[in-house]
Amino acid sequence: MLSIGLVLVLVLDFAISWSNAYTCGTVWSESKETGGFFRVNVVAGYIMSIIGFTQVYGIIYIVLFYYIGPHIEKFQNIDFSQFAQLSSDLLFVGIGFAIIPTGFLIWINSLRAFWKNKTLKNGLVGGWNSYAQIRNTVTVAREMPSAIGRLAEAFFGDKGKKKKSDGAVALLVIFVTILALLAGYFTASAIMKMADRKYDAFEGLQ
Predict the structure, then answer these.
(1) CB–CB of 136/98 below 8 Å?
(2) 35 φ/ψ sector (left φ>0, alpha ψ -120 to 50, else beta)
C-alpha cells in the first residue's frame, strides 16, 4: 500500500516535472532559434521532466500490478514480489543512465549562471543543483551494480534454473517500464507544447 510519505514524494515529483516541462515550453521554439548552450539546457530540462514523470508513472504502475495482478486469473502463476523488484530495478537503471548526464548539464549551467551573475537566486539554484547532482551520482554508483546484477540474472541467467513463470515476469517488467516511459514522454511533451503555443519570448522584441 502506498504510504503517505511516498504519495507526497510522487505528488512533489509530478509537480516539479510539470514545472520543468512548462518552463521549457515557454522558450522551446526560441531556443531552436538561438541554439548554443541555451538550447542544450532547455532540452536537458525537458528530458528531466520526462524522467520525473516516468518515475511517477512507473511507481504507480508497479504498485497497481503488485496488488491487482494476483487477482487476475492469467497472472496467477506470476511471482509479483519478483516483478516488483525487477521492475523497480529496470526503472532505476533506465532513469540512472539518463539523469546523471542530463543533471550534469543543468548543474554546469547553474554554476555558469552564478559565475556570470552572482545573485542570491543563482547561488541557491547552483547550490541545490550541486547537492542534487552529488546525491544522484552517489546513489546511482552505490545501487546500480546490484540492480544490473539482478536484471542480468533474471534476463540472461542459467535457463536451467528458471521457472516457467520467470519468462512471464520478464515480459511484464518490460511492458510496465515501456508503459511508464511512454506515459512520461507524452505527458511532458503535451505540457511543453501547450506552453510553447502560449508564449512567445520574441513577441516584445518585434
Answers:
(1) no
(2) left
pLDDT in tens, 171-201: 899 999 999 999 999 999 999 999 998 876 5
pTM: 0.88
Q: Which amino acid is at 49?
A: S
**CA count, 13 A, side-chain hemisphere, 153:** 11
CB atoms < 10 A from the CB of 10, how many? 17
Cα distance between residue 44 and residue 48, in whole Å: 6
Q: How far is CA 40 from CA 107, 126, 130, 141, in A?
A: 12, 17, 18, 25
On the CB side of 65, CA atoms within 13 Å amount to 28
Sorted by where each begins, the domain ranges of the chain are 4-205
* Rg for the chain, CA atoms, rounded: 20
